[in-house]
Amino acid sequence: MNGKFYTPDGFNDTLPEICAFKKETENKLRQLFLHHGYREIETPGFEYLDVYSKPGFVAEEQLYKMTDMKGRLLAARYDGTVPAARYAAGIKDFDPALLPLRLCYIENMYRFGGAGGGKQNEFTQAGVELMGASGSNADAEVIALSITTALEAGIEELQVSIGQVKLFDGIAKQLGLDEATCSKIKEAINAKDSVTIEKTADSLGLTKENKELLLMIPDATGTYDIIESFEKKVTDETALEALKNLREILDVLDEYDYLKYVSVDAGLLGSVDYYTGMIFKGYTYEVGFPIISGGRYDGSVGVFGREMECVGFSLSITLSITALMRQGLELEAPSVDVIIGYAEGCRSAAVKLAQQLREDGENVILDVSGKNAEELDEYADRAGICAAMYVEEEA
After folding, report:
1. For residues 349-385, b (16+ Cβ closer than 10 Å) or e, as one string?
2. Are 128 and 295 in contact (CB under 8 A)?
3. Which of 267, 282, 359, 390 could form a disulfide with 160 if both were Cys (CB 3.0 to 4.6 A apart)?
4. Pairwise CA distance, residues 274 & 294, whole Å
5. DSSP state of 270
């Protein structure tokens, strides 16, 4: 092969052993979602650019763009959530009495900057969308299913951080912060920049108590203890509802015996604007990016013309496999059980033998290069094939 031909930056070939494990994982997750009542959809590899950019879901510089034959701008599939929202809004003969709608997908995503796929610009995600259901029970179902999904994919060391975007919104309202100040403080919270938060609080003349409340946000992690610490300082109704939502989610996850995997993170605000409530991310060691992302996005389907509360998550299968391999998982290429060769005039018998063995569940190669018995044995040894069979007589 000529060494001058490379894959584009952010795109890689998938080796046979990785591909086999990946497909096996996809099939397991497909069955998992089905057992939880989620029906699989496939969305187009390309959407009109407006589907992502006009509602402000995704910054255009993160999208792979092209034009169709009429010059209309298209974008490669960035995620599974926005296409699912478009799909749900366009369902014909829609019956609200059948809500909630449970959808799932396992598809490749394309985005610049590697967000969601580590350093890869093409990666595979598996995800679910629970549409037409509000409240903590729906939120908790999705978080619990995300944990089950990661475990099913082979991830044993998992930490899920849960936030609530309305907690900050309510605190900002309680403190009387304007939009510009909110944006500045959000950036500082995402960067864990307590110095900027403190300086901003001082410039606003906030009381010591309110300043302490703001400074709690970036580093406040735990479970019920964190919720209780905010409940002592928060008076805004929106923030109190957010805390109630988090408490109820923890209660449900405790019933799943999943509290050991989760923590509340008051500083988790999200990197996209369509989240409207609970938000969460899941991590494992040996990769520096979340393998799970999810949350509530109640306004997204409404952008396409049908109001519907929504919550969902996605798991990066690509990142999960990367993590597992770095954690010591050894993958093997799909094995061949038998290679069959044949003497001149014996092809028909060899074909029948190969077909019979395949029906019995064996992985079989029928030699097409004319090897004799000795050459076939040598080839099987070199290739790691379990057995070589040489047909010398027609059946």
Report:
1. bbeebbeebeeeeeebbbbeeebeeeebbebbeeeeb
2. no
3. 282
4. 11
5. -
